Amino acid sequence: MAVFKRESRKPRHTTRHDAWMLLDGGFAKRNCTILDLSAGGARVKLADREPLGSRLSLALTGDVRKVTHCRVIWRKDTIIGVEFVGRS
Fold it and tell me: Considering the domain boundaries, does residue 10 fall inside one?
């Protein structure tokens, strides 16, 4: 019988930080709020229910040249969970 070890979840830090999502290669910019962060991802509240793709970038400041690339791993209404990824 195989025994699988469950990887423990990275500690999350609660925050309410305004941010911006960059979609479509950076051509579309939408407001959002970071609800919590961990070393591997974040929980993000969207400003609206508009559809978005599986990949986006988060800018934590108004300087959209400094972004964190993400992959959407779940969505429930206007809240999404993202995983931080390297450049694709």
Answer: no
